[in-house]
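Sample intake sheet
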Amino acid sequence: MQSPANPPSPPTPGPLAALPTPLEQLRLPPALSGRDGSNRAPATATRIAATDDLAAVTAWLARYADSAATLSAYRREVERLMLWAVLQLGKPLSSLTHEDLLVYERFLADPQPAARWVLAGSKKLARNHPDWRPFAGPLSPASGRHAMVILNALFAWLTEAGYLAGNPLALARRRRAPTKPRITRYLSHELWATVKETVEAMPGTIENSTERERLHAARCRWVLTVLYLGGLRASEVTSTPMGAFFCRRDAQGIERWWLEVTGKGNKTRLVPASDELIAELARYRRAHGLAPTPQLGETRPLVLPVIGRETGREGREKALSRGALHLILKEVFGMAAGRLRARGPEWEGQAAVLASASAHWLRHTAGSHMTDQQVDLRYVRDNFGHASIATTSGYLHSEEDARHEATQERHRIGWTSKT
């Protein structure tokens, strides 16, 4: 959405002096609840039971309950807007105008006052923590545009449901963002080698290491391995159990391992589990005193806790959260960046690239390296789940086996140490 030549000035903070509160804990006074919002449709037109903004937003979010990643992303953007409206503007969501949303778009690029809106420090906090904030920092132009797309979908649905009289974002003038010619957030072969060297030199890999150090080093190596060789998303790593690995024989009687993953859009795909990936899985499980290969249907999470076994209501071990996975990778990338900086100031640029990397960088790195090694683009597409193959995967076993063989032969992680 483009701002006008002379956009309205940011408003002064509204009547509420409180700090932001997560959506599920938000309690609004009647004047800010949206019961009498200026953009509310007549009660006779509504097709949902909601009588206030929180209930209406909850009804919209409930549509995405089957996709944890989408629900989390959509809740975050709606939460930010509602909190900004009531705390900064002193208005309910259902009273926001087109002009208000122009101001909000500018706010996303610089959430002020920062003490109210932005998390202090880099550590992610639980939503019930008193220092929780809705922003980690200013949003990039691309992230800001994505936020407004999500909010447009919210307002369009609330209008169609008869809760709002109109969509204030429907008046926005939109310009397509320029298409990037290629993926840029990935690690070169040289930087990837530095990351592997860093993990292979961690304290847990040497003699006289503590049990915690040993298991932590094993976990770091396994996380990098499964993200890189599998090309998985972070959410797929944290939601996939060990029992998703399975073995089957091809037409020539060769045993091939696969990993069944449920990814974006709740779509299931088969990821080739190369001999190298299975060997690393066995290495990781042995570090925890487990059998080398998992049992079919095993519910143990793909990434295990370093110490202790925390279980949920059904007695199953709890999976690593995406936040915890993020912290593991940030530690590894930070250590790798430190190794580069130790070489001299001329390495600062490369070190900065490593320090900014994340789990999704590894997915892009895997895809880039696979194409570098001339793995057929069709196989890369199917490995990554970029297009649905549900209709054909049931009977094109020869095509899947060729994909498995090409992936195994040309896409390797190549750890130096084998034990």
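Comment: The first strand starts at residue 245 and ends at 249. Residues 186 and 365 are 5 Å apart (CA to CA).
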